[in-house]
Amino acid sequence: MRSRLDLLMMAAAGGVFAAATALMLHGREPFATWYYSFAWWSYIVFADAWIHRGAERSVLLRNPEAPQMLALSIAIWAAFETYNFRLGNWYYIEIPSDQVLRWLGYSVAYATVLPGILVTAELLSTVGVGRAASGLPVPRGLATSLFWGGLVGSVLPWIWPTYFFPLVWLGPTAFFMAVNFRSGGIEGGGILTDISQRGLGKLYRLLAAGMICGLLWECWNYWARSKWIYDIPFFGRSPLFEMPIAGFLGFPPFAVACHEMYEAARELLDRMRSHPVAQLVAWLALAITVGWIFRGIDAFTVRSFQP
Known about the structure:
By secondary structure, the protein is mainly α. The chain is built from 12 helices and 4 strands. Helix 2 runs parallel beside helix 5, helix 3 crosses helix 11 and helix 8 runs parallel beside helix 11. The N and C termini lie far apart (about 50 Å). The mean pLDDT is about 95.
């Protein structure tokens, strides 16, 4: 029964992807505007069902933490959008003019970030990439170096964006790796904890998943009507889709950063379980913050709205 359900979900996801692609190519709405989200959610559902059918594991569809993952996915990408208010490295065009529809579009698209990365990393695990191995010692002082290096790397793009914009993808990665290692993390934990227990396999899978997702992000964005376009200092030539080729180097560390930020948020929320009022306040504060970021995206990042 379980296998049949997985096959049904895979067939449905594949059918939606094929139909959305065909209708997008013919300019049919809402598939032309929303193609990016149709493509990503089709892939995520297909991949998650594939994983569950083969390994009886689920990143999203049978994961009780799925609502939390989706909400944190939106918040994590929104945090990177705040960097772009200063950097101006990408901008959006042909975005729906209706605010409710527009903000719904932001949420649906940003909610794919974490599931996309994690389901791709899990797919790589099912085919044997980075098999479990013995743990490796984490050098003394590494967490401290990553903490301070990551903190500096997270601040420099705000001060000198033209020269230090690549650190947006490296600074938070290093910072949250250190934070998770020092806190000990929850089950699964951060990358440094995983390296100390099981070796480099998970790190390899996340880096590879980042590059794979980067190619998919850029491919599906390229064909959508509502899309982003880059304006990156020094690297504006020789694009693949909309992204300058050198820019793809940012996707692997970005995947690790998303994983580490997610683990840090899970750790914090786990500690709040015995304080439901504090947890509610935290979620409300996060929702208000994301709303203000969406307003900032409308004001600073969107270059054109659909008529």
